[in-house]
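Q: Here's a chain of 112 amino acids. Please give me its 3D structure as tokens.
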Amino acid sequence: VQLIESGGGLVQPGGSLRLSCAASGFPFSSSAMSWVRQAPGKGLEWVSTIYTYINNTNYADSVKGRFTFSRDNAKKTMYLQMNSLKPEDTAVYYCNLGGVHWGQGTQVTVSS
């Protein structure tokens, strides 16, 4: 299993970023996937999960209405579109498979 995140960076409050996670080594289209983040000095926080085929998604209340989780099964890639970013969204963002497999993370910093 390999998960590779990209797309993080520095953005001003109110700005947008799109994170990507390229997956390989497992049946991506039949796997529920998640984004999890860790803010500086804090524990892991679940952000969102996308389910298989019908692409139902769940979001943490802290990001609901601002973040959109999507997947492209043909490309074996998932995306997290983050809009209206706030300083409290600053964290390392990880894609996750089954609570077991993790990417290396990508840093998102929201600051003016």
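Q: Can you summarize the key feature?
A: The mean pLDDT is 95.
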